[in-house]
Design goal:
- This protein is α+β, with helices and mostly antiparallel strands.
- Among the domains are: 48 residues, no CATH class; 123 residues, Tetrahydropterin Synthase, Chain A (2-Layer Sandwich), CATH 3.30.479.30; 42 residues, no CATH class.
- Helices cover 50% and strands 16% of the residues.
- Strands 8, 9, 10 and 11 form a four-stranded antiparallel sheet that branches. Strands 5-4-7 form a three-stranded antiparallel sheet, with helices on one face.
- The chain is elongated, with a radius of gyration of 62 Å.
- The protein starts with a strand and ends with a helix.
- The N terminus is likely disordered.
Length: 363
């Protein structure tokens, strides 16, 4: 930015024809204004290119033009968490998929809450019967492998049309056709077995594309009317036969457990009888041992008393014994204030036990 004005020459003060162009520089703040405006434009552009990933979605920011700074291609794209994410125009590409469980409905029935994605399957069993099968396929995008999904499908609708619809019907039809008989469709275990075989076969294809088949639910199946009655009667006959066989096995089992209970009761009775006999035997042996112990105790007591008396008699036979007897005799005379005894040759010494006994002898 420059301003121009005329200025008179000092050498020729009176000459108006001579002019000089002088450039006057603008203020430096102009450049700041330009820089701020440019930054605001860039920020506004980024805001306008922001993309949101919902909580039930998985997003991808694929680098189309890396300039040697970023890795290009869907193989390097990393899943974006829920929230807002900036994108650079011409450099980035944005893709988003539902990561929760999705359904693919295969039915020829209209109305209701199920919206058909494909018509019901016509299955021909090994015995030649035709059956129309309504089913639902449950699948989801693997969040950690979402970059692989972008290599094959741009959005969820393409997953249904170019993925599930193009591949699943043929594989499911092939697996269900392995049922040997039409009535096998009434057997839930066989139906589930073939459905799981179809799930495994589909996952071998879709796992490499970042998808997972979670389950296949057979909701309904119909035979042509001309076959329905014959098939139902055959199925009922088979079911009645299985019921009768089950009842027979139940009767056999009942006889077995009744026999087992009877044998157990008999064995218990024998054990109780043996136990009572052992108890009586133990009790009698205990009483006998008790009697023997009491007898031994009485015997020991009598022997001790006999020995004691013998030792006492032996002790009393000596001189000390005579004095002891005399002292015991004086205890009898306790309380007497005066005792007159004869003296001399025929006198009595109350402390001489032998003399006392001789004086008391009857002549």
């Amino acid at each position: 930015m420059a301003l121009f004005r005329k200025k008179a020459s000092p050498e020729q003060p009176g000459d108006e024809s001579t002019t000089e162009a002088r450039v006057i520089k603008g203020p430096s703040c102009v450049y700041w204004v330009i820089a701020i405006a440019l930054a605001a434009a860039i920020i506004a552009g980024l805001v306008l290119t922001m993309k949101k990933v919902e909580a039930d979605q998985v997003g991808l920011r694929v680098v189309k033009l890396g300039l040697g700074i970023w890795d290009e291609g869907t193989g390097h794209a990393k899943p974006l968490p829920p929230g807002w994410h900036p994108l650079l125009p011409w450099f980035h590409e944005f893709a988003v998929y539902q990561k929760n469980i999705q359904t693919f409905e295969m039915t020829s029935k209209s109305g209701g809450i199920r919206k058909p994605d494909y018509h019901s399957l016509e299955i021909r069993t090994s015995d030649g019967y035709k059956v129309n099968v309504d089913l639902t396929i449950f699948y989801n995008v693997l969040e950690s492998r979402a970059g692989l999904v972008r290599s094959f499908y741009r959005d969820d609708q393409e997953i249904k049309e170019k993925g599930i619809q193009a591949v699943a019907p043929g594989i499911i039809q092939s697996k269900l056709s392995e049922l040997a008989y039409a009535q096998d469709f009434y057997n839930s275990e066989l139906r589930m077995e073939k459905s799981q075989d179809a799930v495994l076969a589909l996952n071998k294809i879709f796992f490499s594309q970042g998808l997972e088949i979670r389950d296949i639910m057979i909701r309904d199946f119909e035979f042509p009317q001309e076959y329905e009655a014959a098939i139902l009667s055959k199925v009922l006959a088979e079911q009645l036969k299985r019921v009768q066989e089950s009842l027979a096995r139940a009767a056999e089992s009942e006889a077995v457990w009744k026999k087992t209970i009877a044998e157990a009761d008999a064995a218990a009775t024998v054990e109780r009888t043996r136990g009572q006999a052992e108890a009586r035997k133990t009790e009698s042996e205990g009483e006998r041992a008790k009697t023997e112990m009491v007898a031994e105790g009485d015997k020991a007591k009598l022997l001790a008393e006999g020995r004691g008396k013998g030792r006492l008699a032996q002790a009393l036979s000596g001189p000390g014994g005579k004095v002891y007897v005399g002292l015991e005799y004086t205890k009898v005379l306790e309380g007497l204030e005066l005792l007159i005894l004869p003296a001399g040759k025929n006198g009595i010494n109350p402390l001489d036990a032998e003399q006392m006994l001789r004086s008391l002898e009857t002549k």
